Amino acid sequence: MDNTISKFIELPVQKRVDFWSPQKIGHIRKLSGSGIASEIFVENNESLRILDNIVFRENKSHAIPNMDMQTDTMLAGMKLSVPVYLGDMSYGALSGNPNIAIAKAAEITETMAGTGEGGLYGSVSGSKRIFVQWASARFGVSAGSLNQGASIVIKIGQGAKPGIGGHLPGSKVTHNISLARKIPENMDAISPAPHHDIYSIEDLTQRIEALKILSDKPVFVKVAATNYIPYIVTGIARSGAAGVIIDGHGAGTGAAPVAVRDNMGIPVELAVASADSILKKENLRKNFTIIAAGRVSNSTDAMKLYALGADVVSLGTSILIAMGCIMVKKCNLGYCPVALTNRTDSSKSLDIDFAVNRVVNFINGFRSEMAEMMGKLGINSMKELTGNRDLLEARNLSGETMELLGIRYGNPVDLDPIQGNFEYDIKYLNSLINKGEPVMSSMGSNAPPEVDKPARIIDWLRLDGAQVTRPSIDPYRENINLDFYLSGGDLVISMPVIINVNGADKNVMEALEWASLFIGSVTIDYNPEMDNPEINFHGTHSGKHRYSFIASGENLDRNAGGFILEEDRYTELKITEINDILGKEGIRENYDLILEVSRFRNSGDIIKYLALGCDSVILSSKIFESGLENNYSNLNEKALNFLMGIRKELALLSGAMGISNLQYSIVGNKELLRSVNLDSNIGKAINIQEGGSR
Questions:
Q1: 3-state class of 404 per DSSP?
Q2: d(Cα 122, Cα 574) in Å, to the nearest integer?
Q3: Structure pTM?
């Protein structure tokens, strides 16, 4: 039986909305089959993604009929026929043949490819058009490997998981990967969150200089798109780097914790525009290259990013789709049906000639579409396109977002923050309940507001990821304190999570109470029909604590030990209101503000509410019961898994933000939050800045 994949497999039916829709995949497949232009100026009027709400101001009077546009540019001293970088995908995450195909396609099309973390595959090491990655674990790194290719990339972070290191599950660490990465077989390859020799811009400068001396090659730095991207990029430019790869929120990955992937970082379009603007302001833009990565799904996306300031765009997931990816999102398990991300010792393999042909066709078609759009815009070179924001017009973007992007045309629009109905992610909850570990997934995020419709204000907010200016902390190897002191120190819990078991099935209640006691937390129950419900805590510090239930900041009972706020449409505004009232009176630290939550997407919600000003959250037992999917066996084990999984995810998120003590560093620290095209009035009311601002 021939197990070589040499044709496209039919797409499975998508059970939920996905960024990589059948339409996007179909367009990529069409290009990879024909190699000629298929669709230009693609629009998606239903999308809330910022990039989809930017359009070109087509000027037919200046259109150029000649299709021979100059799409070439220079990168690392080499000419690119089209400003495209075939994104960093490692040997191990991919199964070998795809790595070879990507490198060969880069040679044929005169573009550039990234090797990703983990050393070089033998058949790729001789390629000239590759960037070799130097990541935090130094897997497979040697003087020999660093002297291959055109350039070295210091990977500080990536868009799918800012603030944490790479993660290759042990099941994919086969004999070949063990040899390439110089690590034991069948053991998780978890890279440290920070580079342990880079804790400042000065340290980064030393590493860049050392690598330039070693290799006599230009050095680039790869970072995730996070809150302080303007400062990070200017620091990189002053450190002697040739350029930066900015990897935006939603970028693909072989494996990432869902809570990190869905909550951290900002869209690449905000980061690129901000970086380009500040580099120009600081006179650092000349001879410094910006490569934009993350969710570049077609040539229209790329054209917009060039106009916002990118010199080159990185194509990752789209290249996998061109080779046959059908988006089953099992990359982390090693059972890829099209032999792209399966184990390297699998009997199934990708036909290299087929893959090379498809990628080459895709890039040629991509270039043809770019040339056609450039002609219609009246420009014939990348120099005229890059950073030319006057080509762009905004639709459905707030005034703050337009200002940050530097787009002058279009009318500011503030969108209703509630665009859809909330639904539990049952798959996520079920995994948490059955494994007790941070939930892992692959490919990019479908989180709101860009893909799933936002149902709460926090769905428009992003958490910061630590990088260089504030180094991350490795939760796998370093201690992160999640203890919270409530009720004036009388109540100490092992994490800022309390479970409300009121109304729960008796067996569920007992299981959650037992699990809470086991990990050092508490459950509560009360009679909601009473005018002043009595709060009973069960667990490490059982007993009664006087909290007042409130609907807003009006008529706060100053004799209570704290306040319990029930979530509603304007929860985030009310949290800010109460904090402001108590803060102005100088008595905020005398009271606990606890939010009761029934709509729980993942552990990132907890961190966001803490950063807005809550001292803890109360999760409804209904969240746990939803994840059970009517399977009530082994309830004690599942309840413990549920709480332990949340606790581990909180540690991961804390480490990724560079926080070692959650209560003292996160509560009320709104600098760790940024918004993504949130209604301007709401953003000002809760005092959250737009992503990419400075």
A1: helix
A2: 58
A3: 0.96
pLDDT of residue 491: 86
Topology (CATH) of 15-39+47-56+64-405: TIM Barrel (3.20.20)
- In percent, the amount of the chain with pLDDT more than 70 equals 96
Please write the tens of the pLDDT for every residue from 469-485.
788 998 888 899 999 99
- To which residue do tokens 């692959």 refer? 442
DSSP 470-505: S----TTTS--B--EEEGGGTEEESSSEEEE-TT--
Token duo for residue 9: 């497999």
Q: d(Cα 121, Cα 118) in Å, to the nearest integer?
A: 9
pLDDT value of residue 218: 98
190-212 pLDDT, tens digit each:
888 888 888 889 999 999 999 99
- CA dist list (Å): 214 to 118, 198, 219: 19, 18, 11
Q: Which residues of 159-180 are buried (b: 16+ CB within 10 A; e: fewer)?
A: bbbbbbbbbbbeebbbebbbeb
Minimal CA–CA distance to 675: which of 293, 270, 272? 270
pLDDT at residue 531 in the model: 55
Q: What sign has the CA pseudo-torsion 601, 604, 607, 608?
A: negative
pLDDT for position 60: 60
Copy the structure tokens of residue 553.
Answer: 């900041």
Q: What is the DSSP string of 309-344?
A: T-SEEEESHHHHHHTT------TTTT--TTSSSS-T
Q: Which residues of 314-329 are buried (b: 16+ CB within 10 A; e: fewer)?
A: bbbbbbbbbbbbbbbb
What would the pLDDT profile of 592-644 be if each residue is shown by its tens digit?
999 999 999 999 999 999 999 999 999 999 999 999 999 999 999 999 999 99
8 A C-beta contact, residue 507 and residue 530: no
Quick one: 133 exposed, middle or buried, by C-beta within 10 A (0-12, 13-18, 19+)?
Answer: buried
Which residue numbers in the chain have pLDDT < 50? 1
Give the number of other CB atoms < 10 A from CB of residue 533.
17
Q: Tell me the three state secondary structure of residue 122.
A: coil
How far apart are the C-alpha atoms of 470 and 229, rounded to whole Å?
Answer: 12
Query: Using CA of residue 311, residue 21, residue 104, residue 342, what is the dihedral sign?
Result: positive
Q: Please state, rounded to an integer, the average pLDDT across all residues of the chain.
A: 93
Q: Which homologous superfamily does the CATH classification assign to the domain defined by 426-435+454-686?
A: Aldolase class I (3.20.20.70)
How far is the C-alpha of 343 from the C-alpha of 332, rounded, in Å? 10
Q: Over the Cα atoms of the chain, what is R_g?
A: 25
On whether the CB atoms of residues 166 and 191 are closer than 8 A, the answer is yes
Burial class from Cβ neighbours inside 10 Å (0-12, 13-18, 19+) for residue 42 reads: middle
CATH 3.20.20.70 maps onto the chain at: 15-39+47-56+64-405, 426-435+454-686
Question: How far apart, in whole angstroms, are the C-alpha atoms of residue 107 and residue 127?
Answer: 8
Those residues whose C-beta lies under 8 Å from the C-beta of residue 151, and which sit 6 or more positions away, are 76, 131, 132, 217, 218, 219, 220, 242
pLDDT score of 1: 47
